[in-house]
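Supplementary notes for students who missed Thursday's class. We covered one full example, reproduced here. Read the sequence, then the structure, then the short commentary at the end.
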Amino acid sequence: MEKLDLLEHQSLFIGKLTESGKSFNTIKNYRTDLNIYKNFLTENGRPLIINEVTLSEVNEYTHYLNKKYDSPNSIRRRVQALRIFFDYLIGQKYFDVNPMKKIAVQPKVVDLPRPTKFHLVQKLKAYIEANIERTTGHEQLLHQRNLILFYLIYGAGLKVSDIERLSIEHIRKSRNMYRIIVAPEKRDPFTVTLPKEFEPVFEEYVKALTAGKARDEVVFHQLLFNGNPFRIIKGGLSARGIEVIFKEFSNKIGERITAKYLRQACIFKWLCQKIQIARIKEWMGVQPQYSLGPYQALLEEKPDEFCYLEV
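Structure (token representation):
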């Protein structure tokens, strides 16, 4: 029997996903999840030959995932990715039966909100503003970028995937208020209003960014940028780049702060402001049937802890 190289057929599978029009993030997730299976084989001294997989090995892989990840949803996603990969191989006539069909898929777990506490939201904003005040030049520009990032998440509730694609043109002024035009890959564009205090912050940032781009001789249209302590490297800020920034925040402040939990704090803020539920769901980028019940229950149970405001 011909031996099927895992990496070769994984690459062909990813190519098929690209041809079918799957989003960048979907393809990235499949690649990540399949690489975890490859790492499992490598760590256990197994050959990267896909048609030598056994039910025993598949069971070992699920035990490996259970030890490696705490989140049931993370485990579920990785099992599903491998299941779909084998379905692809069946379609290519390499397999008759999907070995992953023997593995029960865990039901998706609805994660309870874990918003950044309001005093930490205030502390984070004050920390960034203090850094802007005490620095100049390129170092100051980095902190100005971080303040814009703070407003995009806590002010407008944007997901990291939306922030990656933002350009300066996505921020428009209308009726004395700045709004962000969000253009998801699979939904119609919509706008989110930013707090009034965003106006001077944004206008100062655009001036500083324009000067920084001229100084470092770089051209790009993205709102944010990737830079080292000395210069702008390129336009755009990836999910990984945002994760690194928030790890630095957490280390400096002494409390764990993530983009996800800061965004959840923004959702609580909107609920406290009595914004219509349908509008909040639109701004969150979720389907109308999505339930905000866990947020509303926590808000009713502990109003002092989960009541958020503008900062």
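Commentary. Residues 172 and 178 are 6 Å apart (CA to CA). The beta strands are 171-174, 177-182, 190-193, 225-227, 232-235. If anything here is unclear, bring it to office hours.
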